[in-house]
Amino acid sequence: MRERKFWGWGYSDELLTDEEDKNIEQRILNNFSLSEVETIPIPKAKDIELHKSKISPPSSLQNLLSSDHLERLNHSYGKSFPDLARAMLGLFPNPPDLIAFPNNQDDIVSILDWADQNNIAVIPYGGGSSVCGGVETDVGDTYSGVISLDLRNLNQVLEIDKESRAARIQAGILGPALEEELKKSNLTLRHFPQSFEHSTLGGWIATRSGGHFATLYTHIDDFVESTTMVTPKGVIESRRLPGSGAGPSPDRIVIGSEGVLGIITEAWMRLQERPQFRASCPVLFDDYEKALKATRLISQSALFPSNCRLLDAKEALFNGAGDGSKHLLILSFESADHELDTWLNRALEIVSDVGGQYEVPREEKQDAHKSGASGTWRNSFIRAPYYREASVRRGIIQDTFETSITWDKGYKFIECLKENVSKAIQEITGKETTVTCRLTHTYPDGLAPYFSYTAFATPSTMIDVWKEIKLVTNEICIAEGGTVTHHHAVGRDHRVRGYDLQRPEGFKNMLSAAKKAVDPQSILNPGVLFDPENKDIKNWMS
Amino acid sequence: MRERKFWGWGYSDELLTDEEDKNIEQRILNNFSLSEVETIPIPKAKDIELHKSKISPPSSLQNLLSSDHLERLNHSYGKSFPDLARAMLGLFPNPPDLIAFPNNQDDIVSILDWADQNNIAVIPYGGGSSVCGGVETDVGDTYSGVISLDLRNLNQVLEIDKESRAARIQAGILGPALEEELKKSNLTLRHFPQSFEHSTLGGWIATRSGGHFATLYTHIDDFVESTTMVTPKGVIESRRLPGSGAGPSPDRIVIGSEGVLGIITEAWMRLQERPQFRASCPVLFDDYEKALKATRLISQSALFPSNCRLLDAKEALFNGAGDGSKHLLILSFESADHELDTWLNRALEIVSDVGGQYEVPREEKQDAHKSGASGTWRNSFIRAPYYREASVRRGIIQDTFETSITWDKGYKFIECLKENVSKAIQEITGKETTVTCRLTHTYPDGLAPYFSYTAFATPSTMIDVWKEIKLVTNEICIAEGGTVTHHHAVGRDHRVRGYDLQRPEGFKNMLSAAKKAVDPQSILNPGVLFDPENKDIKNWMS
To answer: What is the value of pTM for the model shown?
Structure first.
């Protein structure tokens, strides 16, 4: 296994180059008008002390459970800003006592049996890319111990049904391995979240992951044909069906359950043929409200572009995809079946009618999505998680938050969030900042805006400052009618002043009762989504 | 209020003409080689005796509850074959004691409070079009009484958001009234189940209704933006969002809950602009396997036809849309935004490649879907529920069952169902029959076949014969890997040897626990989906 950084994104051998690091430092100095900035060193695993494991595995499970020091570090946190910050500072007060590496579903049944009998909390762990406290092992003192259950060995494509374009896939497979395997059959799941390299199928299903594409088939929810989930009270396997009206969907309670109901072990997933045809065109707008309108009209046209990503002028500038004077709409179509001229031409007619500008004749080539403004954006998108570590080392908070809203409120909502979060950050940090926005997904009835900001702090203040900002953003998203998360999941970080208010109380009661039916001891991911009644959990944000 | 038939489909003033009735009789005589057939008269309400209501309303609810004789008849059953048969025979052993007609959500809260305190079962009733025992008032003896709660007075479109193309709509509105109201804003829900005239928004949501269109946006599930549901433990209202990844979807447990969790009172629904462009072409096939393949390729092309309905040769013949020698694929496209030549032309290329035949030049007109083979089919589709009453009067079972399956099993599954159900019917009835098939919906990963049959029985045997056939079809659908229902819902009739086996046991336990959290006395639609543990319910099929 290639070793992953316990303190940052990606593999341990994928460090930023000195040049990249210096560039980011320079940007920080310029951004906050500083002459110098404190930089803390990258921590070394051997310098970090962890408390002794409180539990030891029974002999029957010895081969499946590890208390390896580096694994305990790696499984303490996900990859949110405060996760990286705490790791960079060497703060690991609540590591898992043990990490489980089951090799199959039966192993998981045995591990859950043991944990259930011994009051041990179990945190499901896929790629560990959670940015909302979804895999954190801080479960309080009412458990005798905590296990991080890593699904990395359940990493196979078990069966491919080419006729139905579907495959039975194990939950622990990472994005690249999955796509490599499907490619052999000219198929693709076509689900590319930003975390793709370091996230798993099971994680995507558990968190209702959103893919890279802007419309139609992009959410993992729509790709799930059936699921298998191990709970402390047995295995729940749904029937493979293209559609069904037989009661509430059994899969839809698994999808988004974030590990509180069971461990997803495998799923039949709907696939697509690999696209052969592409058409793409960047469109510029002087006026943001018009740009939003154009995006709405495209979303309501049933043309279903694969990309329809609107970057506001500053977001485009910060991503090297513009000079900051115009808003950029990246418009792309993909198909495995047909040429897309008719689709793109009609889309361009629609955007022109509301002031969109594009080059005539437009550039037509197979790899258009990898060149020009679209390409610059694409590279920046993939590289972004890596750049964060340079900021974290300097106490600089580079973070994002994402939400969704119906079109009627869209423009005011985005303006309100940008303004109020900027203001709040200025009040909290004493320094000006710019909150920029892009749309990650658009729907016929609404949009999903994604906000980025960089806030000033120092290595010693960054965690508290981040927390303050996070609570404000949770609060504003909810107060203005949005959701506290559109595709990053709830975890622990989105609960306080967020999900706890958004979720209908009666639904919480139903979900909590459903959990008790399959996890009566509340051993599964306690504190995520809600606090189990029979255990004492403290959310670190409250 | 226009009076509805308590013994058949539609309004009391919409009788079959004598000519229609005679035509159907002649068809029956021919079909089963009979020289004459017993015909029972249409029952009269005044001739039917009902047991005295076991409960009386408290004075505070007197205006909302009725024990009117005709209403009790009308609310005893849905519109399945055995419902019509029992009504035609005047068999009403378990009518509701009272019918509730709440005027608003507060009324529903009050009625549920009273019912909850007095151990009274409550059966939600929308348009009463259930064909699976979803609204039947037979709840056994462990309740002190049973109310049918009719939502007819919650029938308003409360709010329209034209920008997001969405509307807040009360659950009791019928299809035609809803569309009439939306038409004023050039919008449509575009959800047209066969029951459209006599079914309601709330019923569609509660049963995961499937619309008339074959691909993409047709299921009610996808149109729901948010829901409001009254439970005995309070109101659950979800947030209006175009998309969300905040935990399992609160709406997806409401959708398909068939009244066992609460009474859906209103919902924000996603709408579409009314289509202006249409393109349609009937395609003929000599070979059914090739026809299925063509349908699959279209379903996987991302062209998203509004209709892609494959009728096997005999189904086409019986619907007057063919001579019985060829299989008919009705292929149509609709759009509010663009001309559809490119779409239809590409689809015709695909079907030609696998042997589909169509006329060149194809007929192009605005109302193509209302003329030719497509039009004949359309009229037959709308009129079908009315024709049934002429059969029921003669003891002839004219019924359908529907399911879904992935493409890999598709062809064999359809052949197996046709053959085995025909055989079973012959064994049960002693007379040959033909089971025909059409596809109602197609998906990239599978298809939804819908089977029709006519079986011989007499007025005195028809209920028992139907039950035997139903149990066989439930059983075969499940054994062959399908679902016991794709869009007719579960109710009571699909449970025995069907849903009870299909649904994962752990999911049942979660759903049952969720119900207890909001309906601890199990007053809501007992016996539908599952039997509550704390009450004694006997499924009439077992």
So the answer is: 0.97
